[in-house]
Recover the amino acids of this structure.
């Protein structure tokens, strides 16, 4: 039975992890008879957004505590994620992930990645363990690893930025997975393209199956 580490950063597409992508990823792992552990930074999220009005709210929330809503309390701080305990690493997306785990939503191609997150990505990559990323999260993988192959769907500006990192981009359609089998990086577009929730379920299922095929 394969074990997945799933990294979240709050609860909500605009200021944390995208909930549909997170839940469908966990469901896909479970339906493939694998297990998962969920982690998040124990740190204050960049900001809090009203998901009805899209306006910033005058309050502060913790990424670990907010992500615990998705995890039903079964979550640990990211520093407790030990690469030796897992077979694969997965990052759901969301615009909030591009503010909290890395800063693409704020700084574009000049973005940086949280050091604890970058260290974890490098650790899995160094041990030749698969890394999966959904939606905007492939940009983060590209920023850390550079010369890998990913997809962010068909968005021209994001593709240009990803390629500026030295990364190879392959355009994809909804539900598609781009598999970089040499570097064991697996990516899928999700809400980078127009999507129904069933599309997100298919993206997550196809991503997890592609990862499992690589470590069968």
């Amino acid at each position: 039975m394969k074990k997945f580490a799933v990294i979240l950063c709050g609860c909500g597409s605009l200021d944390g992890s995208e909930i549909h992508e997170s839940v469908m990823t966990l469901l896909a792992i479970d339906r493939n008879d694998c297990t998962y552990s969920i982690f998040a930074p124990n740190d204050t999220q960049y900001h809090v957004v009203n998901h009805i009005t899209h306006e910033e709210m005058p309050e502060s929330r913790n990424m670990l505590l907010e992500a615990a809503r998705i995890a039903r309390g079964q979550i640990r701080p990211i520093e407790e994620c030990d690469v030796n305990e897992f077979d694969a690493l997965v990052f759901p997306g969301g615009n909030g992930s591009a503010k909290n785990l890395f800063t693409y939503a704020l700084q574009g191609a000049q973005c940086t990645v949280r050091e604890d997150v970058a260290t974890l990505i490098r650790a899995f990559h160094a041990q030749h363990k698969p890394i999966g990323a959904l939606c905007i999260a492939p940009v983060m993988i590209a920023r850390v690893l550079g010369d890998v192959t990913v997809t962010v769907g068909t968005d021209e500006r994001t593709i240009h930025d990803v390629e500026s990192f030295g990364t190879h981009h392959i355009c994809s359609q909804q539900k598609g997975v781009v598999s970089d089998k040499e570097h064991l990086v697996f990516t899928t577009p999700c809400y980078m393209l127009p999507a129904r929730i069933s599309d997100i379920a298919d993206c997550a299922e196809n991503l997890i199956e592609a990862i499992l095929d690589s470590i069968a």
Summary: Helices lie at 19-31, 63-71, 97-100, 104-107, 115-126, 137-145, 156-164, 197-214. The first strand starts at residue 3 and ends at 7. The radius of gyration is 15 Å.
